[in-house]
């Protein structure tokens, strides 16, 4: 009874105390909720627009410049990138005097070209020879932190695209080898009619079995029992936006032994227009000579001279058309392993 009378006497004070306690609890809950809804801080190390080093792999990789250029230094419609080696000066000389001779002059004065060479680990004599060649022609893209070898070819191509995106304002890039012959006139004419966006143009393979030995051995390949569809590396074209994508993504790109296989994987998950063209004779050995060919791989110095002279005198590529292997049209409507049935009647 005493307790009841005491509660009744102080009921007003107790009510005010209860309301105060309830208000404190509400404020605490509101504070916790607002902190829980606050955005999480961005994870460290994700790329924005700053350059970053290429993924390390032994001697692979080219360190990027300390800061991005404020704007590209040059402009071009087509960038021609020819992978070469320190000792292949004769091949470069022949290319300059044959299929690349029209580049930089009207009507192809908007074609920019470079021979890409890794100079890491070279001796003094080899460096002097390259410096002399550069002083004469000004068309070498030298990568001083990359040792030039087949094992480093994927890193070399990626480093080239990184450099290109930083220093040149262009629409398309042609990657070719120094044993490749190109009909630049035909290539440029067709590119001018194409949209410079998400283009991946070449001779595609989708049923290539993963190599288990030799210089093409892919010991780290775990994606599939075949290579993913890719344009063969003797010569292909990609648009500038894809080059830009590769530069921004380079920290996350795995590098396999073959640069063309690697590019096929890098572009596999994105919305790309893949154009298979049998006029790109870019396999590991040539299919012969066809006057419709735009790009022909595995050409000797003599082959290049003959094709260039025949074009100049007769307006066609081949003295006589020769078929050494059948070609195919890529069937995008079937699984990649069934894509490529060789048939007669295809260039």
UniProtKB/TrEMBL annotation:
One of its GO terms (biological process) is protein O-linked glycosylation. One of its GO terms (molecular function) is galactosylxylosylprotein 3-beta-galactosyltransferase activity. Residues 43-68 are annotated as: Disordered. It is an enzyme of class 2 (transferase). GO terms for cellular component: Golgi medial cisterna; Golgi membrane. InterPro entries: Glyco_trans_31 (IPR002659). It is a single-pass type II membrane protein. Pfam families: Galactosyl_T. It is found in: Golgi apparatus membrane. The chain crosses the membrane at residues 12-30. It comes from the Eukaryota. Keywords: Glycoprotein, Glycosyltransferase, Golgi apparatus, Manganese, Membrane, Signal-anchor, Transferase, Transmembrane, Transmembrane helix. The keyword Membrane applies. Its cofactor is Mn(2+). Beta-1,3-galactosyltransferase that transfers galactose from UDP-galactose to substrates with a terminal beta-linked galactose residue. Has a preference for galactose-beta-1,4-xylose that is found in the linker region of glycosaminoglycans, such as heparan sulfate and chondroitin sulfate. Has no activity towards substrates with terminal glucosamine or galactosamine residues. This is Hexosyltransferase. The lineage of its organism: Eukaryota, Metazoa, Chordata, Craniata, Vertebrata. The gene is B3galt6.
């Amino acid at each position: 009874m005493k307790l009841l009378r005491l509660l009744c006497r102080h009921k007003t004070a107790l009510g005010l105390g209860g309301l105060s306690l309830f208000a404190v609890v509400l404020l605490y809950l509101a504070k916790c909720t607002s902190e829980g809804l606050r955005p999480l801080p961005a994870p460290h190390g994700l790329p924005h627009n700053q350059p970053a080093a290429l993924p390390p792999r032994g001697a692979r990789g080219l360190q990027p410049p300390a800061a991005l250029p404020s704007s590209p230094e040059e402009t071009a419609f087509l960038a021609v990138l020819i992978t070469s080696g320190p000792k292949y000066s004769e091949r470069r000389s022949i290319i300059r005097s044959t299929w690349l001779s029209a580049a930089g002059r009207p009507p192809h004065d908007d074609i920019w070209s470079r021979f890409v060479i890794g100079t890491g680990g070279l001796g003094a004599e080899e460096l002097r020879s390259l410096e002399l060649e550069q002083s004469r022609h000004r068309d070498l893209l030298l990568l001083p932190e990359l040792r030039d070898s087949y094992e480093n070819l994927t890193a070399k191509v990626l480093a080239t695209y990184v450099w290109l995106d930083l220093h040149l304002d262009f629409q398309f890039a042609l990657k070719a080898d120094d044993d490749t012959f190109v009909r630049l006139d035909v290539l440029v004419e067709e590119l001018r009619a194409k949209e410079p966006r998400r283009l991946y143009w070449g001779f595609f393979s989708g049923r290539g079995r993963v190599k288990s030995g030799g210089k093409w051995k892919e010991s780290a390949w775990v994606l599939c029992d075949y290579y993913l569809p890719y344009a063969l590396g003797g010569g292909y074209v990609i648009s500038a936006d894809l080059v830009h994508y590769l530069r921004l993504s380079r920290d996350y790109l795995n590098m396999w032994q073959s640069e063309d296989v690697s590019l096929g994987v890098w572009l596999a998950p994105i919305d790309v227009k893949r154009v298979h063209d049998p006029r790109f004779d870019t396999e590991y050995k040539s299919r012969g000579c066809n006057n419709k060919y735009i790009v022909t791989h595995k050409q000797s110095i003599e082959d290049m001279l003959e094709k260039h002279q025949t074009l100049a005198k007769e307006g066609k590529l081949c003295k006589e058309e020769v078929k050494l292997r059948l070609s195919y049209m890529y069937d995008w409507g079937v699984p990649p392993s069934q894509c490529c049935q060789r048939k007669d009647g295809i260039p």
